[in-house]
# Entry
Amino acid sequence: MPPYLLQETAQLTGEHFVLVLSSMAIAVGAGLPLGILLTRRAALRTPLLGFANVMQTIPSLALFGFLIPIPIIGGIGKRSAIVALVLYALLPILRNTLAGILGVDAAVRESAIAMGMTGRQLLWEVELPLAAPTIIAGVRIATVTTIGTATIAAAIGGGGLGVFIFRGIASVDSTQILAGAIPAALLALLSDGGFSWIERRFETEPRA
Amino acid sequence: MDRSGLAVRGKSLDSALSVEDANSPSGSATLEFYQVSYSIGGNLILDNLNFRILPGRTLILLGRSGSGKTTALKMLNGLLFPTSGSVWVEHRATTDWDLIELRRSIGYVIQEVGLFPHFTIRENIGLVPRLKGWPPQRITARVAELLDQVGLEPTQFLDRYPRQLSGGQRQRVGVARALAAEPKLLLFDEPFGALDPVTRVELQDQFIALRDRLRKTSIFVTHDVREALRLGTEIALLCRGKLEVLTTPAEFVKSSGPEACAFMSTL
# Structure
């Protein structure tokens, strides 16, 4: 790699990382409580999951574009990039939170209630620990996807490794494309490995 | 539901029961079903059940699948409430109990055991005492004592997880967990139904030993008439939500009701 690219690579990788990290923090912060809410209110499942589903079907470049004219959450720059990435990340987190909690053995849940656990104790001591591997798997999928999708953020001035890729495409310079793609792939691999390690640690039943 | 009407009836029930309570075993509850019906989706599951269980007795709820026996059981710890009528635990309708408090004073054992897979045996058995705020040393002592009582060596089992145990061992832990916080009432929902015949008889023997020693009011749901005759001090036979007969095992075998005869013919 030409030395002039090195410094920029480091800077854009940092930007990319921050973009992904803030998006994921917001997506988990919203998706986890919403997912828990969905386990309590079956009537909300169809509309909320439907919304998250529709978001996923919108081509990512189009979604970034749609956000440009929208006031407050939209515009040019990092803010609309984060909004779009959050909307993408929401579905796997919502769906896995819901599936994880609903997947808790009915007999275990009934015992917990019959033993006099309060709703909060049921959630924190039984449902969330038992659903944790599924929920973390959802966050893992969302994170890896977001790392890839975040490269498109550069199209609306969101920065990150996409800057290299778009510039590389425009100037037909595969070195620049690779300078964006390789660190993005490495980030994705690293976070995938990290989450897989966390997932194993949360596996509740010891492998006998 | 007319709560004021219930309160008046409650008063009369109270005075009726207080006489028998004077010489009842301590720490053991009186139970009463008062005109209890339960329906869901237009299906009548329980049809006007009326009966009383005195402290220290073991009542078997016997019936086929779908006879309403599990539904009746779940009325006692407030997992379900009657559509009409009322269920009384210790002279208080379940609708008037603080449900958390009620449930923490009732031991509950189900066929699937329902042990928490992410808790060790120690944590599983010690759960209700912990919820009730017992000091840790007391919980530790109690858990060891209970494992001993159900025939499991504490040092060997305390730190294992449920999936590392056999079905019979898990069910023993389930019984120990139900007994942990010195409940006044024990509910058993076909606890031995999924066990092999030899293990089942072992656990039935242990149940009888515990029953005779602890003298806790117990309700035991089963569809196995042999189990009912062995374990009960009383047997209530449910047929399509109705109580056909409630009597002692000795009288039950002489019973002439159609459903009772059907069950006796399986012996």
About this structure: Chain A touches chain B through 20 residues (CB under 8 Å). Chain A has a mean pLDDT of 90. The CA atoms of residues 38 and 45 of chain A lie 6 Å apart.
